[in-house]
Amino acid sequence: MKQRSQWILLMATSSVSFMSTLDASIVNIAIPHISRELNVPMNEAEWVVSVYLVLICVLLIFFGRLSDQIGRIPVFQVGTLVFITGSLFCGLSTNLPLLLGARALQALGSSMVMATNFGIITQIFPSNQHGRALGLNSSVVQVGNIAGPGLGGLILSVVSWHWIFFINVPIGIIAFLFGHRIFPHQQIHFDKIVIDWPGYATFATMISAFFIAIYWGQAVSFHSAGVLSLFSLAIAMLAAFIFIERRVQQPLIQLKIFANRGFSIGIISAMLVYMTGFFNNVIMPFYLQETLMLSSATAGLILMAVPLLNIFSAPAGGVISDHIGAERVSFFALFLFLIPELIFIFVQPTWSLAWLVFGLAFFGIANGAFQNNPMIMGNAGPEFQGIAGSIAALGRNLGMAIGLSLATSLLYSGISQRAGHHMTAYPHGHASWFVYGMHFSYLFALGLIVIAIGLLGWLLWSRKKASSLHS
């Protein structure tokens, strides 16, 4: 394939990946608007976010396995059309059931796109350009994850929440047409499809039980018998899944891929970084609009500091990773995260906005420099590129879904501590309670980054030690 066509295809796949990741985070800032217009409680409106993330987690591995058998490009292209259709229906929705159904359709398309885009990129680019190509894709995907609140705030300051979804339609159609024209066309053989249905059933049950337990626990109590039963079911399904995958002839996931420490630590550290990023998506819109009383437009502009800096640091990190390795670049990038996290732990409403903008900008630099995609895909062998891309996308979405739940739980736990009673909403008239909850939450976010530093540091140290023993 010609080099020019490679980069056009990269932009086509990345643009669809951008939209599918953006739609996981952009809705957060629109939840109050959706709640008011559809006349539903805030906690029910938040299902619009959680349904999308959880369904993607459930479906990703299935489409990763399917794409390995019938081809990644057909699955990606069909997924693009499904995602566009879901986006259109989301924008046209006039009540919560219709919106949730459309979000489910969006999630179906998004999971098809996310399960295949990494594998397509490693397929069309030579190995010596994987770092650069995946770095650029990583920057686009990460911008989608972190630009949601900022871009959403800007859109909401001009038009209604429906346009958060409508904007996907023309971009998606253009990306699909580019791909249809340039992607190599291949014949699909449906007779060769073999799916490990028992394995998938246990996996889907495990993910569903885990997240239902989390969301139910937030509403009632994590000590509830029903919530504890669901967590127990999730653990039992995990054990059953591993048991099945070790014994079937064509497993859903080749578990031996996790024997590569670089791959496993890459997945875990990427999950931790995406979890940390969702603390900003959940907490910062409230802090800017409710505590500091800024408009949606101003809040959106401030939050855009993260993706704007990310755009520049991610490609640079990809180029550097081609020379010194993605793990080393990512290790140093993790230390950069400590600066914004410390600012968010101590920031007060009386501080200058410049501190907040600086912290968000530095978060964008660190997020872009963290080379999770090249690190994960580079540690997966050629025979694992398809499923590795699916697992990487699963790790990213699990990180976002868990980050959403963790940030929300910690925020309201901190607020409740300060209030002296259980609270699950913004404490109007008590801004200091919210600030305490925010600091409490970001302290945990700092801990997540420290864990990631420890994991990657151990990986680099063990490789250096192994290298010295063999030299």
From TrEMBL:
Subcellular location: Cell membrane
Coiled-coil ranges per UniProt: none
UniProt keyword list: Cell membrane, Membrane, Transmembrane, Transmembrane helix, Transport
Name of this protein: Transporter, major facilitator family protein
The keyword Cell membrane appears for this protein: yes
InterPro entries attached to this UniProt entry: MFS, MFS_dom, MFS_trans_sf
Location, primary (coarse class): membrane
Domain Major facilitator superfamily (MFS) profile residues, every copy: 9-465
Gene3D superfamilies in alphabetical order: MFS general substrate transporter like domains, Multidrug resistance protein D
